[in-house]
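Hi, here's the filled form for the chain we discussed.

Project: internal
Contact: R.S.
Residues: 371
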Amino acid sequence: MAFTTGSNTYQESAEKIVNLSFAVGVYRPPSEGGSASLLLRITENCPWNKCTFCEMYKGHPFVYRSVDDIKADIDTVKAISDELTAVSVKMGQGGRITTEVGMAIVRADPSLNNNYCFITVFNWLLSGGKTAFLQDADSMIMRPHEIIEVLKHLRGTLKTLTRVTSYTRSKTLAQRKPEELKAIREAGLDRLHVGLETGDDELLGLVRKGVTNAEQIDGGKKAMAAGFQLSEYWMPGLGGSERWRQHAENTARALTAINPNYIRSRPFVPRCGTPIFEDYEQGRLRLTSPHERLEELGVMIEGLNVTSRVCFDHNMNSWTNKHGGLLFHQDYEGYKFPEEKPFVLELIREGLALDESRHIDVKDLIAMRSL
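And the returned structure, exactly as it came back:
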């Protein structure tokens, strides 16, 4: 009965919300989804879109969105937020966004249960409204004065934000002037996620990453100097059995030179429909076994001389420990280096001491992804 009354009381808010929409993409780092970040599409798809291992944006052209369109989306998020807050006040919840508030609005208009914009804003507010992630693959490709304008509007409109983050490319960072990066940071962009993948120039060329090792280091150093929190991602197994050592050693050198805040492991699993998957199917690329990947990981970790947090926050880090659980914990803060470096190396030795059949093979991961 309470919900029936509520559905009438909150009908006006529900009708307003159902007519509000903004651009939301699909992809974001796990560490941003885990904190229920607000997702805002600043650009669409990827301006490079040639990496042989990536299928995320294939077949979708890059779109450079206008500042006015982005600011309108931010205003829409604020409008949805205001309606949710108004319902909360009517319910006697003092403006707090709770599950009960969401249930009341969905009861008023059940179509909102499948409204991605409403769900995105509701989940963001439910988690505290603290973080936002700017999509898609390279928001920093925007002209500096334009992204600064967007950031100032975002921070001025959604005042509960304490962290704003984005994907970008090393190449883009390397092309930016230090003063431009500093101005963007000061406008309110806090953290950057960069797909380094490998620090080996030969492998970078083979996978068509579109950047050199020197540019990766230059871009990473510039980001750190500008005051960003920097997450760099690398791909164990990307070099296959033929190039695993150079991949590990040169990646360790690059990451040591950058010394980012976070180093995140994303083990390589070829995806169906990508050029590198065709290389695997036709035998041009031999995938490394679980033990070979751990050996590669050991070489990379041993070569790191950083003060970073080293993270295994993805389910592709699927090695097993002696108790049958995960070898590495998968929280977003990882292991603090150099303090926990000996412990991580000990975990690698533990994994290598187990029979290889105890670990999930990359071929099993390929099968899982095709389901």
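Let me know if anything looks off before we file it.
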